[in-house]
Automatic annotation (TrEMBL):
<dbReference type="GO" id="GO:0016787">
    <property type="term" value="F:hydrolase activity"/>
</dbReference>
<protein>
    <submittedName>
        <fullName>NUDIX hydrolase</fullName>
    </submittedName>
</protein>
<keyword id="KW-0378">Hydrolase</keyword>
<dbReference type="InterPro" id="IPR036388">
    <property type="entry name" value="WH-like_DNA-bd_sf"/>
</dbReference>
<dbReference type="InterPro" id="IPR015797">
    <property type="entry name" value="NUDIX_hydrolase-like_dom_sf"/>
</dbReference>
<dbReference type="InterPro" id="IPR054105">
    <property type="entry name" value="WHD_NrtR"/>
</dbReference>
<feature type="domain" description="NrtR DNA-binding winged helix">
    <location>
        <begin position="168"/>
        <end position="228"/>
    </location>
</feature>
<dbReference type="Pfam" id="PF21906">
    <property type="entry name" value="WHD_NrtR"/>
</dbReference>
<dbReference type="InterPro" id="IPR036390">
    <property type="entry name" value="WH_DNA-bd_sf"/>
</dbReference>
Length: 245
C-alpha cells in the first residue's frame, strides 16, 4: 500500500542543465494545462517546476531525490536545499486556485525548495512521460504558483556557490575544453570574462587535469580536453576553491 502523503508539505525541484551547444543555462519545466469540462475553455496554460507532497515515511531529502528520479530517471546528482516558501498567499491567485481545486490538494502548502545540477544530454526529454522542456533561465515562459520566485532564488544561490565550490563541473561533460568551462561561467554569472586571464588562473589549479586528448568532430583547430579531479580537489583545495572572475 502506498504511504500517505503529508497534505500541506511539498518539495519543489529546480533542475538546472547547461547546453554546451547553445551556451545556455537552462531550467527543466513541465506544462500545466487545464480545460473546463463543460465548455472546454482553457483555464490554465503555463509551466511549472516539478514537485510533490512528502510521504509519511520519507525525509525531505528522500522526497527531493524521488521527485528528481521520477522526472529525469537520474539520481546521485548534486542537490542543494536552499529555501522554504511558506507565504500563506503563495497559491491564492485565480489560476492557481483553479488548479489546486482540480487536483484536490491543500491550498495552504509549504514547500521546501531544492535545486539540482544535471548534464543536459543525460536527460531524455523525448521519451519522458512528463514531457518536460528545457528553457533558458533568462527567458522563461509564463510560470504558475510562485515558481518564478523559487527559480530566481535558486539561480542567485547557484551564482554564489559557483564562485566558492566546484559545482560548475556538475554541468559539464566529463571531458571539456577551457573555452567550454569559461562559457559555462559566463552563462551562469552573466558576465564576459577575459580569455587570457581566465586560462592563466585555471591552469594553475591542480584539480584541473590536462588530458592527452583533443576535441573531435570540430571544423576549427581542435582544443585540448581537460577533466576535473574531485579527489585532488578534496585533498588540496577543499578550503580554498574561491574563483575570482
Amino acid at each position: 500500500m502506498r504511504p500517505k502523503i503529508i497534505p500541506n508539505i511539498s518539495v519543489d525541484c529546480v533542475v538546472f542543465g547547461y547546453d554546451v551547444t547553445t551556451k545556455s543555462l537552462n531550467v527543466l519545466l513541465i506544462k500545466r494545462y487545464l480545460e473546463s469540462k463543460e465548455t472546454h475553455e482553457i483555464l490554465v496554460n503555463d509551466h511549472v517546476l516539478t514537485g510533490y507532497h512528502t510521504l509519511e515515511n520519507e525525509t525531505i531529502d528522500d522526497t527531493a531525490t524521488r521527485v528528481l528520479k521520477e522526472l529525469t530517471g537520474l539520481d546521485n546528482l548534486y542537490k542543494k536545499q536552499f529555501k522554504v516558501f511558506g507565504d500563506p498567499n503563495r497559491l491564492m491567485n485565480e489560476k492557481d486556485s483553479i488548479w489546486v481545486e482540480s487536483e484536490n490538494f491543500n491550498q495552504r502548502t509549504i514547500t521546501i525548495a531544492y535545486y539540482f545540477l544535471v548534464k543536459t544530454h543525460e536527460v531524455d526529454v523525448k521519451n519522458n512521460i512528463h514531457k518536460p522542456q528545457w528553457f533558458p533561465v533568462n527567458n522563461l515562459p509564463e510560470l504558475g504558483f510562485d515558481h518564478k520566485a523559487i527559480i530566481n532564488e535558486a539561480y542567485a544561490d547557484l551564482k554564489a556557490k559557483s564562485l566558492s565550490e566546484p559545482i560548475i563541473f556538475e554541468l559539464l561533460p566529463n571531458k571539456f575544453t577551457v573555452k567550454e568551462l569559461q562559457d559555462v561561467y559566463e552563462s551562469i554569472l552573466g558576465v564576459e570574462i577575459d580569455n587570457r586571464n581566465f586560462r592563466r588562473k585555471l591552469l594553475t589549479k591542480k584539480y584541473l587535469i590536462a588530458l592527452d586528448e583533443k576535441q573531435v568532430g570540430v571544423s576549427k583547430k581542435p582544443s585540448q580536453l581537460f577533466m576535473f579531479s574531485k579527489d585532488i580537489y578534496q585533498k588540496i583545495y577543499k578550503e580554498s576553491y574561491l574563483i575570482s572572475i
